[in-house]
Design brief:
The chain has 323 residues and is mainly beta. The protein has helices spanning 2-22, 241-244, and strands spanning 25-32, 36-37, 42-51, 57-63, 67-68, 76-80, 86-96, 99-109, 114-116, 127-130, 132-137, 145-150, 155-165, 168-178, 186-192, 200-210, 215-224, 229-239, 251-258, 264-268, 271-276, 288-296, 301-310. It folds into 2 domains: 22-110, Sandwich (Immunoglobulin-like); 113-310, Sandwich (Jelly Rolls), CATH 2.60.120.560. The chain contains 2 helices and 23 strands. Strand 20 (264-268) and strand 21 form a beta hairpin. The protein is elongated, with a radius of gyration of 27 Å.
Length: 323
């Protein structure tokens, strides 16, 4: 009788051990693409876990701000950051039978509208280009840079916005690689939405440099919808070979902004280079930024890195920024 009871006890222990092994959960990591994010960023998150029985595993996601946009039950999800800077948490609970384990991760949201280091294969997300070849060069910039080659006159590489109101400021590191003719240009531009069916409005403002000669100009362009005509107005121009005549692949930092008073401001390598109030003097004009980015002349090649965009009153000063 004792032998029978002993065998039953052994069997019970074996069954218990088997069930325990089958229901084992060990979260190895909870991963995100990046450590700091912009307001309203869309961030992929995913969990890696070891489980005893992969036929009976479930995933439950949570966050303390923003929202998770994918259905529950999957090992991955997408977190949309809130529209406010701060430190938040995303977590995932992995369940396997009767066992479960939860892992949390911090999500730091900055007060930037947008940032890109162009260091991942996702550098082209959210961007549009016209007559522009876009590539990635791991050997340029801080840890890689986007390479832009214009295939026609006025090639464009820009990111669209949902009509962001001013103040608006953007800053980028860039290096000219090729600029074969005197007429070749590189420009940083802000484009504006047509509001309330306006028949005449300011379509864009640009700071344009001519890398072969060192010339520069600051302009805005008006669009007459009825006539179908665009008119460029020069706010300032000059020649500055020390700053704008290019040295191949040498990086500089430029920032273009419209402040709350509708002044157009340009900083270059940490110094205010140009400021003009012409846009503020145009009666009845509203400035909602619909797109911002680069314009390039045909056959011009540049590299771009560390792009910042702000809509909170920050005016970029073309100085190194830390995230």
């Amino acid at each position: 009788m004792k032998k029978i009871l002993f065998n039953i006890a052994l069997l019970a222990c074996f069954l218990f051990a088997s069930c325990s092994d089958d229901d084992n959960v060990n979260i190895v990591s909870l991963n995100t693409f990046g450590t700091k994010f912009c307001r309203n960023d869309v961030v992929k998150v995913f969990v890696s876990a070891e489980v005893g029985d992969d036929s009976d595993v479930s995933y439950e996601w949570g966050c303390d701000a923003g929202k998770l946009t994918n259905p529950q039950g999957l090992f991955e999800n997408v977190w949309k950051a809130p529209n406010e800077a701060g430190t938040y948490e995303v977590w995932c609970t992995v369940k396997n039978g009767g066992k479960k384990q939860t892992r949390r991760t911090k999500m730091v949201v900055t007060d930037e509208l947008f940032y890109s280091s162009f260091e991942t294969p996702y550098y082209n997300e959210g961007w549009s280009n016209a007559s522009m070849t876009v590539a990635f060069d791991a050997n340029k910039g801080t840890n890689g840079a986007v390479k832009l080659t214009s295939g026609k006159a006025d090639g464009r590489f820009a990111r669209s916005w949902e009509n962001v109101s001013i103040p608006f400021s953007t800053q980028v590191d860039y290096a000219v690689n090729t600029s074969p003719q005197d007429s070749c240009f590189v420009e940083i531009r802000l484009e504006f939405a047509r509001i309330d069916g306006a028949m005449n409005y300011v379509a864009k403002v640009c700071f344009t440099t001519f890398p072969k000669t060192g010339k520069w100009k600051a302009t805005y362009t008006t669009t007459d919808v009825m006539a179908g005509e665009d008119t460029e107005v020069v706010m300032g121009e000059g020649t500055d070979t020390a700053n704008f005549k290019f040295k191949k692949d040498a990086f500089n930092t430029i920032a273009a902004s419209i402040d709350a008073n509708k002044n157009f401001i340009v900083y270059y390598n940490g110094k205010k280079y140009f400021e003009n109030d012409a846009l503020a003097k145009i009666t009845g004009q509203q400035y909602n930024v619909s797109r911002s980015g680069f314009g390039l002349e045909n056959k011009v090649i540049i590299f771009a890195d560390n792009l910042y965009v702000f809509d909170n009153g920050t005016i970029c000063t073309a100085e190194p920024r830390e995230r």
